[in-house]
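General statements about sequence and structure are easier to judge against a single worked case. When preparing material for the folding task, we compiled for one chain both its residues and its backbone structure tokens. The amino acid sequence and the backbone structure tokens for this protein are reproduced below:
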Amino acid sequence: MLKHSSEPMRYTLKQLAVFNAIAQTQSVSQAAKQLALTQSATSMALAQLERQLGRALFERQNKRMRLTSWGEWLRPRAKRLLADATQIETGLFEQHKISGELSIAVSQTPASHLFPQLVRACDQQYPEVRIEMRVANTGSVINAVRDYQCDFGIIEGRCDDVRIAQQLWCEDHLSIVASGNHPLVGKASLTLADLEQAKWVLRESGSGVRMIFDSAMHGHLGELSVWREYDHVGTILALVETGSYLTCLPYLDVAHGLADGRLVEFNFDQLNMQRPLSFIWRAEDGDNLLREKVIELAMQEVQR
């Protein structure tokens, strides 16, 4: 362990930025590229920070830089200091000067139907803000935010992790659909029991859609015949439109197919499949000006 210094702290924002970049990339060389520094300058900044704090913040594992317990403790606090510094800097200029980078993990439905208009609005309002997006199911989005891989996320359904803060964006609902040629379409009186006999193609376990579907079905039906599970909505729709399958997907994903007759919707009053689409971020992160501005634009977009 490094010897703790009794001298006053003299760490710099640059050192904290280096620490944060190494924590994010798990690599000194990648952090150097991200910060436009030489590798030697990056290594020196980290060494100086560890010496001044009197703690080892990383350990090397298979050529990767892994946070020690002290590094894990420091990371959220360093990110807050860096975020505060950004707000101080941007606060000295007019609002149109807001700039920076945000990494956002987005689940499939908002990524396909809502996120593009948010990016367009952000490009018009804050052209100097850069948004990096990754698409994943809800469980993976929550993990990416919690594990510092992304600044914040957009999920379907809810998150019960107390380490995650969330804010409702808008609401959607799930629809049970089939092709117009499905045998159940012509049945005079359709009941929930008929669904047990059908072949289903569904989203994969861990997705927000699947969690809401399973919860809605619980207590109403026995075991369904789940023929296939996929994480790609386009694949599911293609199978349903050309085969004898049922599926349950967000209305936003099936709206065009319902409008042009490729799909038929089955409605059951007993099933509640409303779901929220929400922004999430680490509760410990505190205020973040860029995140707040992007969420503000998002709320305006859905209210148009």
